[in-house]
Amino acid sequence: MTATPSPLPVPPRITTPAGPRGADQPWWNTQLGSAMPFARYERSGTRRPRPLPLTDRTWPSKSLVRAPLWASVDLRDGNQALRDPMDTRRKRAMFDLLVRMGFKDIEVGYPSASEADFSFVRTLIEEDLIPDDVTISVFAPARPELIDRTFEAIDGVDRAVVHLCHATACLWREVVFAMTPGEVEEMAVRAAEHVARRTDATKGTRLRFQYSPETFNVTEPEFVLRLSNTVAALWDASPDRPVTLNLPTTVETDSPHVFADQVEWMHRNLHNRRSVILSVHPHNDRGTAVASAELAVMAGAERIEGTLFGNGERTGNVCLATLALNLFSQGVDPQLDFSDIDGIRRTVEFANQLPVPPRHPYAGDLVHTAFSGTHQDAIAKGLAAMGRRAAEADTPAAAVPWDVPYLPIDPRDVGRTYESVVRVNSQSGRGGVAHVLNTAYGLDLPRTMRVEFGRRVQRAADHGGGELTSHELHALFTEEYLEFDRPRLMLKEFRTTPGAAGVTLAALVVLADGAERRLAADGPDAATAFAAALADIGITVRRPELTCHPLPDTVGTRFAAYARVTVDGTAQHGAAVTEDAELARLTAVTSAVNRAVEHRVP
Ligand SMILES: CC(=O)SCCNC(=O)CCNC(=O)[C@H](O)C(C)(C)COP(=O)(O)OP(=O)(O)OC[C@H]1O[C@@H](n2cnc3c(N)ncnc32)[C@H](O)[C@@H]1OP(=O)(O)O
Ligand SMILES: CC(C)C(=O)C(=O)O
């Protein structure tokens, strides 16, 4: 309940905006020009022009109806971006996880880059660790000596994809290679021919090929199309042995719709389209990799390369967990098993030695959690409505279509529980508090009591400043309703017998000074009779309204009862938890009486 005060940060050095407002800025937008050097940056395609994208695009009217072929690059693009690249143990944990989840296309490394990558590929092959329906791929740049080393790494494998990649984009051609487009084309042809020659010399291995024109999204489309057609033809692409053409946004530069146009243009213009598996490899520099990948599939892509939870160069690769679970949340089979998302996350965190942030879609610690009152209230009502629908249909809750406000998927479908769905702090409301007490302790507070206890919790949360755990909420509930320092009244024993008005109640109570008093009264039920009997000791209790329910205890049976009464003219709530239902009801009345006294103490 106590929050650790965090130190006040040093204020950032911000130049107060002072530039002019935009000429066409409406009066209600009072923002000023900033001191940021934005003029150093140009709209993409301005300095190095690229032809315009499509005008007759068809992708906007498409929808995602099936899972694409998922290709994990965790062990290559993910690995190359780590401060401490994976050792064999971490690589193995990642590989085994990917296989268990159902990945069939796994890039296992860049074997010519390091001994670690090379020997991991050898281990997979020599120890026969690659399932029959999984195809590994290995990355190679367009350098003959590194291609040769790549082939050494896959010697003896049954099936594999050799992935050839080199830069094609203008900036890379000029700055990295110092080559003309023609020279880059020659390099591509030489490398593809070298791969083909090495393949011809390889016996007993079913090899396929992949070609990635690096930074596809900022390469002139006509150039990249020509290269792709040339390389696919050199590799004899056919429907039986398709070439994977992988279009990377190596550095994401544009809004996703621009990439979608580029992909659709390639999809329409590629020669021999049926002999090509059109793949994309989105990075997340603008934070829109997921959107880019989804629109690319609408535009004709059939395969997506990415990593689990988005590890990868800079801002990372596209997150395959997000993409797959986006499909799942739309009723499309993701063809990957995310039923234990926390287990998957643990393994990925172990392999990458990087944490998954708490807000990461579907997998972050907080993504199925509501702190805010109205969200909690809606979630609790939504879950209750689901429960009712399941009961009406006489089916398990897990079989009812999911429809709960604020929760795109059922946390249980990814192996989480409802306990973490609602967590309480000063932003929370009575709905959330009631939900936590109910899910964690089985206490189903009546509506008026929720309002009262909600206020009590709000005070405690405001005071503490942080989160209140379910345990702390229960402690507050106990302190407020179940236990009293100096009770005015305790019920020691009671007996009911049928009476003229319904029930005759005889009770022995203990008063604040320890004195014991015997009471008796008639009433339609025991609680009403008890309320009436209290008049004998000068306590006026009227209009008792009681609810009682069994508690889902693991040991024995217990009952919770809640009373709403007027005590000496003031409305009061009381509650009790005991082994006997009737005792619980009567004790809830004494709780209300005791609270009436406590609340009179200033
Ligand atoms: C977009 C991507 O993510 S591609 C994958 C990138 N992955 C990695 O870089 C991780 C692994 N890489 C490595 O371990 C190293 O880079 C190695 C071992 C492969 C190569 O190391 P080195 O031979 O020392 O070269 P270095 O990494 O500095 O590469 C630079 C040279 O390669 C050339 N080059 C870069 N990419 C490619 C490519 N895809 N195809 C052909 N040549 C390339 C550059 O033009 C440069 O050549 P130059 O020295 O003649 O100007
Ligand atoms: C190898 C390619 C696909 C790559 O990693 C990239 O361009 O980001």
Automatic annotation (TrEMBL):
Coiled coil: none annotated. Residues 1-14 have a biased composition (Pro residues). The keyword Amino-acid biosynthesis applies. Residues 1-29 are annotated as: Disordered. PROSITE patterns: AIPM_HOMOCIT_SYNTH_1, AIPM_HOMOCIT_SYNTH_2, PYR_CT. GO terms for molecular function: 2-isopropylmalate synthase activity. CDD domains: DRE_TIM_LeuA. SUPFAM superfamilies: 2-isopropylmalate synthase LeuA, allosteric (dimerisation) domain, Aldolase, post-HMGL domain-like. It catalyses: 3-methyl-2-oxobutanoate + acetyl-CoA + H2O = (2S)-2-isopropylmalate + CoA + H(+). Its EC number is 2.3.3.13. NCBIfam families: PRK03739.1. This is 2-isopropylmalate synthase. The lineage of its organism: Bacteria, Bacillati, Actinomycetota, Actinomycetes, Kitasatosporales.
